[in-house]
Design brief:
- The structure holds two protein chains of two kinds.
- Chain A has two domains: 115 residues, Rossmann fold; 234 residues, no CATH class.
- In chain A, helix 1 packs across helix 5.
- In chain A, strands 10-11-9-8-12-13-14 form a seven-stranded parallel β-sheet, with helices on both faces.
- The mean pLDDT of chain A is 94.
- Chain A contains 14 helices and 14 strands.
- Chain A is an alpha/beta fold.
- The termini of chain A are far apart.
- Chain B is 0% helix and 34% strand.
- Chain B has one domain: Archaeosine Trna-guanine Transglycosylase, Chain: A, domain 4, CATH 2.30.130.
- By secondary structure, chain B is mostly beta strands.
- The chains are: A alpha/beta, B mainly beta.
- Chains A and B meet through helix 6, helix 10 and helix 12 of A and strand 7 of B.
């Protein structure tokens, strides 16, 4: 039987688990204006970024695609695009990309409004109107098959691969079994598991895509490390990994991969692209926490589950980031930042299966509106668009 | 070791975690010394294993005797092979296990 959660059904049939207004600058120059608009309208979030100017080629296209897909994410009830006016990826193009969703959408361009003050004022009016419409929208019962969770870890320690990631994998499997979706990323943390991942692909095409994605990343890393001025840092596994009991890169990467449980892989998506079908997917992303999270939200994730052994407080604008740790010491120290302590498995208080179920139940609660610690405290550091060198 | 890793090992019972049913190693959840008995949970079943040498938190214990070149299974997958044969209860690490993937000159 498929279980349900309470979400917002959107005009295009997609489902959001939050109902905020996104204020998105098309270029870094309009970042402050976007921020000031959001400050004036509670219930809106802004996406400050350093890009959009003097970029070319795939670098600019990745920025453009990512900004459009962020705007399309169903967690946002409406979008106010804030442009400067002379940027190469124009605010009109950003708005046109978001338009097919049918969500509330307005554009404010600083050079057309007159100055930043007038642009802020205009943006506040538009966001305020949207907020009033959004405030009347109601949550409804939605099957778990409409849920897309992202798997992203950072500040990992020995407990992450040992208990936190395997427990998350159990929760992820339960969502995928019910027809829902999950996104595994951080290709740099998966080196050595390509054959194992490829065996889990639904068909030969997906298997080949998985292998190619990991090989490309490894080749890029080899180039970068060969040119590095510090040759002591070019190994796939560190002395710290060995000290913690990891004996091979395969063992280390499996610990990261286990976030995705044992479900089959339905497909591979590029950075800045949306999932085209349901099921478990591999997203081609770097290892940076923020670049990964941003790619995952662009791909359509409504919620991020984030194991962290050492502890990190970060969050994402308008997308709950559910923090779990396998380290009881970290949990005790960072209780205000971390939602679930999987370290209880190490302490002998609970089984992996029990924690997997607890994570799953918390995902359903959070999808239905329960705030996670990162969003209640206003953490939004994870919005960060990857650059293509 | 747990202090060095900044992990509080509150578990007073000497126990080890079996991550996948297919695994032939389990992971120590506390420091286990030579000759001590260690509890391994396999789903609802439990097995007591006598540990042959000191095994630190996070490190692997052989659950069966392993021949040379036998696959070492953790997470239900092959993480490497034995470079020498070992007995049940031994510590498994890169001193007696090899993995060609990821090794560089």
């Amino acid at each position: 039987m498929t279980e349900t959660f309470m979400g917002y059904r959107r005009e295009n049939g997609q489902v959001g688990i939050r109902n905020e207004i996104a204020i998105i600058p098309s270029v870094f120059c309009s970042g402050k204006v976007a921020e000031r608009i959001a400050y004036q309208v509670p219930g809106s979030v802004y996406f400050r970024h350093p890009v959009g100017c003097s970029q070319v080629g795939e670098d600019l296209e990745t920025t453009a695609k990512t900004l459009i897909q962020i705007g399309k994410n169903p967690n946002y009830a409406g979008v106010v695009v804030v442009g400067l006016g002379c940027e190469r990826f124009s605010p009109q193009e950003l708005a046109a990309g978001i338009k097919p969703t049918g969500k509330m959408l307005e554009t404010v361009i600083i050079q057309q409004e007159g100055d930043s003050l007038q642009a802020i004022q205009e943006g506040i009016k538009k966001a305020r109107e949207m907020q009033q419409v959004a405030s009347r929208q109601q949550r409804e019962e939605i099957p778990v098959s409409e849920l897309t969770i992202a798997l992203n870890c950072g500040g990992s320690d020995v407990t992450s691969g040992l208990v936190a990631n395997p427990a998350l994998g159990l929760a992820s499997d339960k969502i995928v079994e019910q027809g829902g979706s999950a996104i595994l990323s951080e290709i740099t943390e998966l080196l050595g598991t390509e054959d194992i991942l490829a065996r889990r692909a639904v068909d030969d095409h997906v298997a080949a895509e998985i292998k190619r994605t990991i090989e490309d990343t490894e080749q890029r890393l080899e180039r970068q490390t060969a040119e590095s001025s510090n040759q002591a840092r070019n190994h796939l596994i560190s002395t710290g990994n060995y000290d913690g009991g990891l004996s091979s890169v395969v063992e280390k990467s499996l610990g990261s991969m286990k976030k995705s449980g044992n479900a089959p892989f339905s497909g591979v998506v590029k950075y800045g692209e949306q999932l085209q079908q349901k099921g478990l997917h591999l997203l081609d992303s770097p290892g940076h926490d923020g670049e990964t999270a941003t790619g995952q939200v662009a791909a359509g994730a409504q919620l991020i589950v984030f194991p962290t052994g050492r502890g990190t407080p970060t969050g994402f604008p308008g997308v709950p980031v559910l923090k779990i740790t396998g380290n009881s010491k970290t949990y005790q120290r960072m209780k205000e930042n971390i939602d679930i302590n999987v370290g209880r498995v190490i302490d002998g208080e609970a089984s992996l299966e029990q924690l997997g179920e607890e994570i799953y139940q918390e995902i359903i609660e959070v999808a239905s509106g329960k705030g996670v610690k990162a969003e209640i405290l206003g953490h939004d550091e994870l919005f960060c668009i990857t650059r293509v060198p | 070791m747990s202090e060095h890793l900044n992990v509080a090992v509150n578990n007073e019972k000497k126990s080890a975690l079996l991550i996948d049913e297919k695994d032939n190693v389990s992971v120590a959840l506390t420091q286990i010394n030579e000759g001590e008995n260690c509890l391994v949970r396999k789903g609802k079943e439990e097995e007591i294993i006598r540990v042959l040498e000191r095994i630190n938190f996070g490190h692997k214990i052989a659950l069966t005797d392993l021949e040379k070149d036998a696959p070492v299974l953790k997470y239900g997958e092959i993480i490497g092979r034995m470079s020498v044969p070992v007995q049940k209860g031994s510590w498994i690490h890169n001193h007696n296990m090899y993995c060609e993937r990821g090794m560089r000159a």
